[in-house]
Automatic annotation (TrEMBL):
Keyword 4Fe-4S in annotation: no
Single GO MF annotation: ATP binding
Organism this protein belongs to: Roseisolibacter agri
Membrane topology: Multi-pass membrane protein
Name of this chain's protein: ABC transporter ATP-binding protein
Cellular compartment(s): Cell membrane
């Protein structure tokens, strides 16, 4: 499976428990704790099974033998049985829970670590809400399996097997009554469990839909509010919630019916036993104590059958969850690191030692089945050269820029850095050599310092400040309430657009890469902010090989070379002046896009 082509929804293959087996490696480190928990479980279940036997003795002591001393002994015995059971349950729950919490954390961590390594294409295919819900609800389901399911299942199986055995020992004929009823209960429970599973998946899908909507709306809150869509989005959410309720009510109806029907069938069986047993007590072939003991076992068996059936439903849900989680874990990145990378000498950012960048006859499409968006693009930037990419919207500029750090891989031709195919380099070398300044820089929640240090963890305060000064960010940062320690809010919402850009530039200064990929902002900032950003960029690009997706006249003028893209092809190449003189595609682009700026600037 590849990360770009997998379906958005989890697949519904026939359910086999195999995905659960893949949890085993995660359980192994806790084998000791789990083994002790299992022993405690066995002892607790055994105590549970002994209990009806002691009750029998107690009742017979009172009713048949009239022995006070035996009655006292038996009552104490009963207390002892419960005490043992209590201690065992305590230890078992504690050990099992602590082990499964660790397992869950490891699994979440593995999933997260895997997902963050998948290429951006994967995230454009999936809704992030769906992925975060995998991390939360599916893993919670898995935990419930490990935590309650395994122990409950074991306990109930023990009760069932032990119950039937002890029942047979107590009274074989009465046991036959039970054996006649049991298959009916099992069959009914089985059918219901299947129906329930289907209903549960329906509910989960709808919950995922509504979570995804909420996620999207919160992420785009400004757009939502600027178009006054709050009411409309709330209605959409409401409609989805309506779906959740309908599906959940349908499931509840099934569940209610399940409990009603299975409960009735089971208790009808108990009544039959009671009736037949009562007749045997009247006939003097059975003591009252033995009948009660028998009844207890019958209850145990009925309860075990009922629980096993509903556990079966949970089991199926958990298999589904495991399947979805492991499906994600199995998603191979479409952009994979080479097994034996060619080392790239670390170049300090500037000067003649810079790194050449080239696209050689590059063809590219975003996914199989989509049309090519680049048709044989050839483009070279010599060390230290500043190349501006221009072209109409949709020409392929962003696409070209995202091929350099391998956010996607070419479908034909190659991209090289310092003469090496980018696919031969380790991510650390490749991405370490390229500094990206995005059009709309996103900051992470955390302090200003953390956000700059992102480029080089472990950088000293002095280095951070130097980078910040170079990016003309220092001036505004020191005026923030807590200076470099000021939290910037999620995605940097507490900073202005120009300030965010300067933080993004400071990051690249700190990184000091040999190559810079710059997606120039289209929205204009106020003049002062604009000037600061421009000065910072001017400084940043000095001597670094640069690819700029240019939207400003000042940028194209300053570039050593301008490359004009049109519909995924390079149509012109030269300096601003040369291209303008040619009177071709660039000239018309200039007239449409850049000239107004020229007039304003003049
Ligand atoms: N993730 C994607 N999946 C599929 N197609 C895409 C994706 N991103 C871009 N495209 C398509 O690729 C083509 C080139 O887009 P690209 O973003 O590179 O253009 P651009 O020149 O940067 O445009 P703009 O100046 O508007 O940003 C467009 O036709 C676009 O629809």
């Amino acid at each position: 499976m590849s990360d770009a082509s997998s379906p958005a929804r989890p697949s519904r293959r026939p359910v086999s428990p195999r995905p659960l087996a893949r949890l085993l490696p995660y359980l192994r480190p806790h084998a000791g704790r789990l083994a002790i928990a299992f022993v405690c479980l066995l002892v607790a279940a055994a105590a549970g099974l002994v209990f009806p036997r002691v009750v029998r003795e107690l009742l017979d002591a009172a009713f048949r033998d009239g022995s006070r001393a035996r009655l006292d002994r038996m009552a104490l015995g009963l207390l002892a049985v419960f005490a043992v059971q209590g201690v065992m349950n305590y230890v078992q729950v504690l050990l099992l829970s602590s082990a499964t919490e660790h397992v869950l954390a490891r699994l979440r961590e593995a999933l997260f670590a895997h997902l963050v390594r998948l290429s951006p294409g994967f995230f454009t295919e999936r809704r992030t809400g769906e992925l975060t819900s995998r991390l939360s609800s599916d893993l919670v389901l898995l935990q419930s399996v490990l935590n309650t399911w395994v122990s409950e299942f074991t306990r109930q199986v023990l009760f069932l097997v032990g119950g039937v055995l002890l029942l047979t020992l107590t009274d074989p004929t009465l046991t036959l009554t039970i054996i006649a009823v049991a298959p009916v209960v099992v069959a009914v429970a089985f059918v219901f469990a299947r129906l329930l599973r289907r209903a549960s998946t329906g509910v989960q899908d709808r919950v995922a839909d509504s979570t995804a909507l909420a996620d999207e709306v919160f992420g785009q809150i400004r757009t939502v509010q600027s178009f006054v869509r709050e009411g409309e989005e709330t209605r959409r959410y409401q409609a989805l919630l309506g779906g959740v309720v309908d599906a959940a009510v349908a499931r509840a109806r099934l569940r209610a019916l399940f409990f009603g029907v299975v409960g009735f069938v089971a208790f009808a069986g108990v009544t039959a036993v009671l009736w037949m047993g009562g007749r045997r007590v009247l006939a003097g072939t059975l003591t009252a104590g033995a009948l009660v003991q028998f009844l207890f076992y019958a209850f145990f068996i009925a309860a075990a059958v009922g629980s096993l059936a509903s556990l079966f439903g949970h089991f199926q849900e958990a298999i589904g969850a495991a399947q979805r989680v492991f499906e994600l874990l199995d998603t191979a990145p479409t952009v994979a690191e080479p097994a034996h990378p060619v080392p790239l000498a670390r170049q300090s950012g500037r000067g003649a030692t810079g790194v050449a960048v080239a696209l050689e006859d590059v063809h590219f499409r975003y996914a199989d089945g989509l049309p090519d968006v680049l048709h044989g693009v050839t483009l070279r930037a010599a060390p230290g050269e500043v190349v501006a990419l221009v072209g109409r919207s949709g020409a392929g500029k962003t696409t070209v820029a995202s091929l350099l750090p391998r956010f996607w891989d070419v479908t034909g031709g190659r991209v090289t850095l310092d003469g090496h195919d980018v696919r031969e380099l380790s991510f650390a070398d490749l991405r370490g050599a390229i500094g990206v300044v995005p059009q709309e820089p996103a900051l992470f929640s955390g302090s200003v310092r953390d956000n700059i240090a992102l480029a080089r963890p472990g950088a000293s305060d002095a280095e951070i400040e130097a980078a910040s000064r170079a990016a003309h960010a220092h001036e505004f940062v020191v005026r923030l309430p807590q200076g470099y320690a000021t939290p910037v809010g999620e995605r940097g919402v507490k900073l202005s657009g120009g300030q965010r850009q300067r933080i993004a530039i400071a990051r690249v200064f700190l990184k000091d890469p040999a190559v810079v990929v710059l997606d120039e902002a289209t929205s204009s900032l106020d003049t002062e902010s604009e000037r600061l950003v421009e000065e910072a960029l001017e400084e940043l690009l000095q001597g670094r090989t640069t690819l700029i997706i240019a939207h400003r006249l000042s940028t194209v003028r300053r570039a050593d070379r301008v490359v004009v893209l049109d519909q995924g092809r390079v149509v012109e190449e030269g300096t601003h002046a040369e291209l303008l003189a040619q009177g071709g595609a660039y000239a018309s682009l200039y007239n449409g896009q850049f000239r107004a700026e020229d007039v304003v600037g003049a």
